[in-house]
Design a protein that fits this description.
This protein has helices at about 60-70, 90-100, 120-130, 135-150, 165-180, 195-215, 225-230, 250-255, 260-265, 335-340; strands at about 10-20, 35-45, 50-55, 75-80, 85, 100-105, 185-190, 215-220, 235-240, 240-250, 315, 325. The protein is α/β, with parallel strands linked by helices. The protein has a domain at about 45-70 and about 90-115 and about 160-340: Rossmann fold, CATH 3.40.50.300. A hairpin with a 2-residue loop joins strand 9 (about 235-240) and strand 10 (about 240-250). Helix 5 (about 165-180) packs parallel to helix 6 (about 195-215). The relative contact order is 0.14. Bound molecules: adenosine-5'-triphosphate. Adenosine-5'-triphosphate binds near residues 63 and 288. It holds the Pfam family ABC_tran. InterPro entries: AAA+_ATPase, ABC_transp_ATP-bind, ABC_transporter-like_ATP-bd, ABC_transporter-like_CS, Oligopep_ABC_C, P-loop_NTPase. This is ABC transporter ATP-binding protein. GO terms for molecular function: ATP binding.
């Protein structure tokens, strides 16, 4: 399940940067403080394939997804849709863009009008995107959308209100609503983390099926690096606003190159490895107002060298489209010696999304 070289990306972020004005602080400061939420991130999404974006809380994953959705203007860099740079943060241009690039949020309850029935909500979406269809055709489209997300028979769901459905059923309705636009890209921001563990797999499998059948590109934002291996062709790992490793999921999870990716894998829950083998204290992420100089991970890195404290690492190519930003992969003696010390390669844990027996 790797992306063939012949497949062109449908959506691409090139050197994306987003800085927010920091809250608080003295109003008399000459230089306004900023949060470096996303810095110089480049990422490609391919039709028919899932790309996982993995990282700790606060690493900038949601901000990156929102930049790609054009909900925020970028501070730097550009977004390319089918190879063309697009700036569409408002008005008609935004509406046209949003019909092609749909965001699916973590909390389905928060994204529905509580007093609108499922029929009304889906009819509205169908009307927006298929205004040319007759009323009867629009109504039939609603039933068809519900069938596509396995809410059958549709008439059992159309008259219900959001509070009458489970979290999993409502997440299926939000996927149906996103499908109404016939999008090319889904940006799914932690689509299962608010759901019960036992129903997560079903939702992820549905997203995977839709991605493959409709040739849609899916960005799957998650904390769970183990699920990335099972669901995503590509995995990108984010740390403190930067992408520090990316490539085919099998490579990134089985042969993690960056010490941070190795730490994420070692600290993920895995019943088969036993709790004692799990790395519990993985330290704290740095401030994004004053990120560390050099490599942002160096204060937590067990292999940090002198240069890691002052020079930001470039992207090193490890072959098979696997890249990492870490000085351990420099072509010199010091790096080679250090690299040999990182030989621990924990088996990737089972995903947290596994069905419970
Ligand atoms: N509108 C905003 N104004 C100021 N700072 C913001 C804003 N949105 C996000 N941030 C900051 O940007 C950083 C990245 O946040 P973001 O929500 O993108 O991370 P995340 O990896 O998605 O975290 P989580 O997994 O908890 O959702 C955080 O320090 C956050 O506080």
């Amino acid at each position: 399940m790797t992306v063939p070289d012949s497949v062109e990306p449908v959506l691409e972020g090139v050197d994306l940067t987003k800085h927010f004005a920091a809250r608080g602080g003295s109003p008399f400061r000459r230089h306004k403080r900023v949060v470096h939420a996303v810095d110089g991130v480049s990422l490609k999404l391919y039709p028919g394939y899932i790309t996982a974006l993995v990282g700790e809380s606060g690493s900038g994953k949601s901000t990156l997804a929102r930049l790609l959705a054009q909900l925020y203007p970028v501070t730097g860099g550009e977004i390319r849709y089918r190879g063309q740079a697009v700036k569409a943060t408002r008005g008609k241009a935004f509406r046209a863009y949003a019909s092609k690039v749909q965001l699916i949020l973590q909390d389905p309850f928060g994204s529905f009008n509580p007093v609108a029935s499922i029929l009304r909500t889906l009819q509205r979406a169908v009307r927006i995107h298929h205004a040319d269809r007759s009323r009867a055709h629009q109504r039939a489209t609603v039933d068809d959308l519900l069938r596509q997300v396995s809410l059958v028979p549709p008439e059992q769901f159309t008259e219900k209100f959001p509070h009458e459905l489970s979290g999993g059923q409502l997440q299926r309705v939000s996927i149906a609503r996103a499908l109404a636009a016939s999008p090319d890209v889904f940006l799914a921001d932690e689509p299962v983390s608010s759901l019960d563990v036992s129903i997560r797999l079903g939702i992820l499998n549905l997203l995977k099926k839709l991605t493959e059948e409709r040739d849609v590109a899916l960005l799957y934002v998650t904390h769970d690096i183990a699920s990335a291996r099972y669901f995503a062709a590509e995995t990108a790992v984010m740390y403190a606003g930067e992408l520090i490793e990316q490539g085919p999921s099998e490579e990134v999870t089985q042969h993690a190159a960056h010490p941070y990716t190795q730490l994420l894998i070692a600290s993920a829950p895995d019943p088969s490895r036993g709790e004692s083998a799990r790395v519990k204290d993985i330290g704290q992420p740095p401030s994004l107002i004053n990120p560390p100089a050099g490599c942002r991970f160096h204060p937590r890195c067990p292999y940090a060298m002198q240069r890691c404290q002052t020079e930001a690492p470039p992207r090193f190519d490890l072959g098979d489209s696997h890249t990492t930003r870490c000085w351990l992969y420099a072509d010199d003696e010091e790096a080679e010696t250090r690299r040999s010390q990182t030989s621990f390669t924990p088996q990737p844990p089972e995903p947290q999304t596994k069905e419970q027996s």
